[in-house]
Amino acid sequence: MDGKLATPRPGEPKRTGTRIQKEKRAAILEAGLTVFAEAGFRGATLDRIAGEAGLSKPNLLYYYPSKEAIYDALLRDLLANWLDPLKCLDPEGEPVTELLAYVRRKLEMSRDFPRESRLFANEILSGAPEILPVLEGELRELVEKTALVIDGWVADGRLAPVDPRHLLFSIWAQTQHYADFDVQVRAVLGGPDFDGAARHLDLMFRRILEV
Amino acid sequence: MDGKLATPRPGEPKRTGTRIQKEKRAAILEAGLTVFAEAGFRGATLDRIAGEAGLSKPNLLYYYPSKEAIYDALLRDLLANWLDPLKCLDPEGEPVTELLAYVRRKLEMSRDFPRESRLFANEILSGAPEILPVLEGELRELVEKTALVIDGWVADGRLAPVDPRHLLFSIWAQTQHYADFDVQVRAVLGGPDFDGAARHLDLMFRRILEV
DNA sequence: TTGCAATTTGACCAAGTGGTCAAAACAACG
DNA sequence: CGTTGTTTTGACCACTTGGTCAAATTGCAA
């Protein structure tokens, strides 16, 4: 062929291609995640990503046409998983249980996917140039919807009164802190302490939320 | 002279020099804070810092010998102010009042010095290459000391039982969140909401801490 | 005013950057 | 085997980056 990778629909997520294409693209995203999470978009270099992925730079650019394409692909994948736990919150469930489960799930994500958390944090810290629309659109709507649910619970007397939006901020801040500030946590504690964090957050939010 | 800026003690903080030296150095730090906070160390460029400070690049390098020198100076200034509020926590005071005042103060710092908060966040996110020793040394000791105080309060029955270290993480995470994730907060809320945050945190920590 | 130190700058450099391209190497399949 | 399309690479390019330097300009005290 003419040297350009043949993708049926260039704009769409790249789930197509040969076995090699899938493997290499996965390796690139994996490496990109590591590098972007640590250095941010501007701080990351194609050379480092290529090295980390075990490819030469031109070879990397054969699979993704630019640095930004890799970054965008990562952010897109990320956001789907990121918003998911909040969607899982069940308006029919027991309020405190539902919220504690959400906290727990977010904390587990910080433990299991710290790079994703840091990638997100870096994007926000630098002003969210890429994902501001999503924040103002999808995320905002989701928060509003959840806020209504929580307000309902409070009105029914099944939850202690709280500002639902700031409550969500509290949950995000505290759970993501264990991924984003991992270095600091380890420095202060002398090592990671997932169980301690889980117990602490469970206790805290129980006291806050129980009527 | 020979073109090198004359500083009595090159390693020491630069409080010496002519009026112009003080002004320009302050302008550089100011600009550096803005740029480093937004882009991180690797993402920041001397050109942008110089531009923001209204200097040419060589002129900037006349006052600070390298990019890292500016960054280091900023981090050093930052850390002093950063640790200060925790030092102000009075072991003799009323436990809940003391801790709520600490929360409040940290929140005010996020409002008044958001760039400092983001600079710190960026440094930690990229693995704290510059300040890890401080975290493992001074910060850790300070936390240990404070943990003893809090444990004492709990033992005396003047505070509901909490893990003091994770409590500090909770406070840091939630207060700094309003600076570091400012973009997200605005996107979700449609604007900043310091008073709302202050009320929420006050309420939350009251519920957590009161016996 | 004059002289000297402090300050500022334009020109420059080596290294690193994102990205291109033609050609080579490889895989697959008849 | 040969052919055809896929994958990989070395060489290369324009641009940015952190940093240098000698020379020009400015501030200031005697």
From TrEMBL, chains A, B:
Boundaries of every HTH tetR-type domain copy: 22-82
From the UniProt annotation, give the residues forming the signal peptide. Answer: none
Q: Which GO terms describe its molecular function?
A: DNA-binding transcription factor activity; transcription cis-regulatory region binding
Matches recorded under InterPro entries? Homeodomain-like_sf (IPR009057), HTH-type_TetR-like_transc_reg (IPR050109), HTH_TetR (IPR001647), Tet_transcr_reg_TetR-rel_C_sf (IPR036271), Tscrpt_reg_YcdC_C (IPR013573)
Pfam families in the record: TetR_C_3, TetR_N
Give the start-end ranges of region Disordered.
Answer: 1-20
Q: Where is the composition biased (Basic and acidic residues)?
A: 11-20
Official protein name in the record: TetR/AcrR family transcriptional regulator
